[in-house]
Amino acid sequence: MTTLRRPLQAAAACAVLLAAFGAPASASALEPFTADYNANYMGMQAAGRMTLAPAGDDRWNYSLEVSGAGARLAQSTVFEAEGDQWRPLSGNDSQGGESGLAAMLVKKRSINATYDWDSGRATWDGDVKEDRRGPVKLQPGDVDGMLLNLALVRDFKAGKELSYRLVEDGRVRRRVFEPAGTEQVTVGGKQHKATKVAWKDDDRSITAWIVDGLPVPARILQQRDGRDHIDLQLKSVR
To answer: In this structure, what DSSP letter does residue 151 have?
Structure first.
């Protein structure tokens, strides 16, 4: 789920981000999509759009934008699909409050990430603290917050362990999602049975609702200190 990073950690990562969520197990079966979401960010109503589009040479551009109530939050990742392996190449995470209450609550910020697999290092620039610029050593299977969303659905469908080495914001963190029951969700006026998968630490959690046949999660909820931080609920996908 987008898992989502910062305000958008999907979840992203998150957004889940929250690794957008069913994608088939084979990377060669990736297909473009556009998914529209109703969004609630820190109590503000907004609209979200998640897209996957080919970028040539086995590369894909995966993005999420949430806008409304005077705020705009955006994340994008370019990744390479090589066999069944997906790896991030570059990413951008930006946000900004443009008017009203959002102008006070959402600080303008833009951060760029570079995943250089030739050198085996990830680095960051833009509005990022000096100690979060990297470099961080890369390992096969590493994901960023956006790519985690897609990998989460892919691996759930394949019956694989939902354990990931998340490399973002100048650090490495382990994310392990566990099944959290089932629930009925409505997408495009139709009822679907969704399986919930969740990750939680002391004060944060990300939950994704995965529906068979959908290339993205039907819902992505990120909570902080027990309160909803960002909630994305799928309206349609095409």
So the answer is: H
